[in-house]
Amino acid sequence: MLIKNLRREHILVANWIKKGSRVLDLGCGDGSFLAALRTEKQVSGYGIEIDPANIEACIRNSVNVLQTNLDNGLHDFENDSFDYVVMSQTIQAINKPYEVIDEMLRIGKEVIVTFPNMGHWKCRLQFLMGKMPVTTHLPNTWYSTPNIHMCTVRDFNNLCGEKNINIKSRTFLDTHHNQVIGMQLLPNLLAEIAIYRLNQPLDSQKSDSSFA
Amino acid sequence: MNTNQAEKSIGIVNSKTLGFDQPLLLDSGVTLESYEICYETYGTLNQDKTNAILICHALSGDHHAAGYYDLKDKKPGWWDNCIGPGKPVDTNKFFVVCPNNLGGCGGSTGPLSHNPLSGRSYGPDFPIVTVRDWVESQARLADKLEIKVWAAVMGGSLGGMQALQWSIDYPKRVYHAIVIAAAPKLSTQNIAFNEISRQAIMADKDFHEGRYTEHNIVPSHGLKLARMIGHVTYLSDGGLHARFGRERLENNARFGFNVEFEIESYLRYQAESFVERFDANTYLLMTRSLDYFDPAQSNNNDLKLTLAQTSAKFLVISFSSDWRFAPSRSQEIVRALTDCEKDVTSSEIKSEFGHDSFLLPIPDYHRLLHAYLGKI
Hints:
The structure holds two protein chains of two kinds. By secondary structure, chain A is of the alpha/beta class. In chain A, about 30% of the residues lie in helices and about 20% in strands. A seven-stranded mixed beta sheet of chain A has the order 3-2-1-4-5-7-6, with helices on both faces. The longest helix of chain A has 11 residues, at about 95-105. Chain B is α/β, with parallel strands linked by helices. The longest helix of chain B has 16 residues, at about 260-275. The two termini of chain B are about 30 Å apart. In chain B, the strands form three sheets. Chain B has an eight-stranded mixed beta sheet with strand order 1-4-8-5-9-10-11-12, with helices on both faces. In chain B, strands 2-3 form a two-stranded antiparallel sheet. Chain B has a two-stranded parallel sheet with strand order 6-7. The chains are: A alpha/beta, B alpha/beta.
């Protein structure tokens, strides 16, 4: 597996990842992202998955995978044990995103989160028509969707502000996984996928001891 | 063996025995001057001798892991569903070795064997052997078979503990360690269950301080009770209910204490057949080995430090309804491995069959093993 063959969103994320680093990929699917990073960037680390079929696919891709429920499976990782903790389009499907983000920032020096943007104009249009949005990117109906915590770009910004999380950089993609300039200006209206690069601000260093 | 079973199985197998004259210094400080190891092999060792898999058995297992001794055998080896042509441990690809552990009662030197020093059977004089001792004896077997590196060492329960110990004691001789339904050490509750089983055996009037063979008798009541206790703990409440429910042999209560419920009948049958094939002194010894297993103990109880010296790739599997070796116990192994940045894949298989799940052909479980071993 090569980086250029990954989906666009993963290619962008892969560009941010330094050679030889350690990566934890939450909701790693078939492991192709980690497999490509290993091949081209000598990256080591683990994927985390819940689905048995994906576990098997990871094994076939020779990717180290740990079958864990993200909602309770991160607490025993040591602080700063990974250079990057990545979560691609998974945050909307977990029970407690608010807590998982904290855990990601604790165990990773840097966190990369991608999520579908509920503020996209197609979603807004469907809301105006009085319907829960169903798009190519979010194809499930409200009663069958695994996505229980949808948010918009603005919502996510607010969360980062509230938690005092530093946004290192961010970028956006449309349906065709292209980066268009207009989308970078009006992301909450035009972006379908948001990609955020986060870390903890320097004034709140992670520490085992509390001075509070 | 019917035709259908025979087609899927490795078929007729034979056990072999090798003698070892080099004394083995055991963890207990006792030296075993000479001993025999009984084992079976399936498949063919390749020219480079790189395709060998060691199967380690659990408490009540032995070296007969796959195939049949005779066409008339009703049952194949204990892991026949997993080992054979086209099965997860594919004998078309791998050379599989399964020894009977020292102290066992399947043919390797153990309490039933003749003690050259006393002129009678060892009985209770057979020294308690530990998981580390087993690994050492298996390493010597590997030497004789000219297997320098195992493609994989694998096992469930006590067998998984041996796989883990192998990765620690012989990091360069294990390419993959497959640790199934195991734990880095027993829980207090586990030791408690073992003690109850041992008490059941030792309290039997036919036990004779372990010298029952000299009295031409076996402590069958105690051994049966030990097996029943063990068996119930190896299953789950849900699994037992699904299989037996509250079904009775007859509709109405008989207001007595003979067998009325299906589960009673099943337990008694299991216990009966166990006594026919298993030795009470071996049961005592094996449960003690389980109690003692704690590879991190000599490293200040630091499992991470203990596993830091390994170089195998690990596959760690647990089962959701296993409460004797719960998934959280496997997780301890996994986290210690990830903390020291080892290659590890882990899976918690959904199953209602408790600890015994590791012996069953659960589709997700076997698919996983198949995929993993296919990549070796």
